[in-house]
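SAMPLE LOG
Freezer: B-3
Tube label: C17
Construct: single chain, 149 aa
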Amino acid sequence: MYKLFALFICLFLLAGCGDNNGGYADAPARSADAIDLDLVAMSGTMMYAAIGNLFMRAPNHLGDIIRVQGIYQPFFWHATGLYYHYLTIDSALGCCPQGIEFRLPTEALFPYDFPPIGALVEITGVFSSYEEMENTFFYVAAEGFIVVE
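STRUCTURE (predicted):
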């Protein structure tokens, strides 16, 4: 009797999965400039906390469009022979900066196509990931940047 009941429940639960969208109405089309996470609109404390949360749940945010503002800092890593580009965001106390990596299109050349070091910069792009040296890293794929000051 219990087996028959369990089978009935399974069939009932799976019945809603017959179409591609699980029976839900189609999601509205996203506009090209829809921003999923706008860190610029947040206070400094909230932005700092949101970035911490973003990296704690990074796989859940892949593909999200993110806008962020911070101080531009390049970093050369001898192990790969590459430059990495970051925006750093200070905590409310100014003691514990966090960085978010960003990448410009592949044709961008450092230092010519990048902002001045130490400039306040705003970027908007898609939260993405890459594998390097057996680790997964997350970054914002930005089309460009705006120097705020």
